[in-house]
Amino acid sequence: MADPGDRQRDAIVDATAALLQRSGAAGLNVKAIMAEAGVSRTAFYRRFDTAHDAVIALLDRLLGHMVDTNDDWLAGKILGCPDIVEPNLAHTGRVLAPYAPLMCAIVDAAGTDEQLRSAWRDRVIQARIVTTEAALRRDQAAGALRATLDPAATAYALTLMNEALVLEILGRRGGTPEEFARTAAPLWIHALFADEPSPR
Fold first, then answer.
1. Which residue, 199, 170, 200, 197, is CA-closest to 183?
2. Residue 170 contacts residue 182 (beta carbons within 8 Å)
3. Alpha-carbon distance 44 to 38, whole Å?
4. Cβ(102)–Cβ(62) under 8 Å?
5. Quick count: other Cβ atoms within 10 Å of Cβ 87?
6. DSSP-derived secondary structure letter, 38
């Protein structure tokens, strides 16, 4: 049986997500979260010090779901060839699609809230950059990627591109994971496998 404290914590995080999606950062405060979650002030403050702490818990939950997108490549399978890029991106899209509207709400609210913007970048996006960079370094060391590839810069660029495409295609337009993968895959393939340009 679940601990009542855990259920209340989950209710507070769920309420934070609902308020962000409905009202953005402007509607996010402890009183509104308590009302949405149906918890007392005491119950809220037993679990969180501020509304921002509830947002951090929401971001950590979202990051947990993003870790679940660790497809074959991020989980350790050597990339080696372009053929697995699109299927892995489609898998990522399928896992993230249910959370894309929430991700849009968080990013939109972050435009007016410096704390939220920093938390999104530092906790969620940076974690994806680090994971991607590690996988690129692993594949480069195995000889699957060209030696001149800059894993740090490439991971940074591809992660930010994926973020923008997930938000636009899955979050704002309601597109499919396959559309996300078809859009992102050629850019990933070019970045990772294209021959070096010839010196002029």
1. 170
2. no
3. 10
4. yes
5. 15
6. T
Alpha-carbon gap, residue 97 to 84, rounded angstroms:
20
Q: Does the predicted model carry a pTM greater than 0.85?
A: no
3-class state of residue 199 by DSSP: coil
Torsion, Cα 157 108 53 15, to 10 degrees, reads -130
Q: How far apart are CA 2 and CA 159, in angstroms?
A: 36
pLDDT value for 66: 73
Which residue type is seen at 81?
C
Closest alpha carbon to 95 in 116, 74, 118, 119: 74
Written as one letter, the residue type at 147 is A
The per-residue pLDDT for range 28-50, each reduced to its tens digit, is 899 999 999 999 999 999 999 99
Q: Give how many domains the chain has, as a whole number.
A: 1
Range of the domain at 144: 58-193
DSSP string, 62-89: HHHHHHTT--TTTTT----SGGGHHHHH
DSSP secondary structure letter of residue 97: G
**Residue 23 included in any domain:** no
Question: Cα 58 to the chain's mean position, in Å?
Answer: 12
Tell which wins on pLDDT, 181 or 22: 181
Does the residue 8 lie in any domain? no
* Burial class, 144, CB count within 10 angstroms (exposed 0-12 / middle 13-18 / buried 19+): middle
CATH code: domain of residue 68? 1.10.357.10
- The separation between the first and the last C-alpha atoms of the chain, rounded to the nearest angstrom, is 69
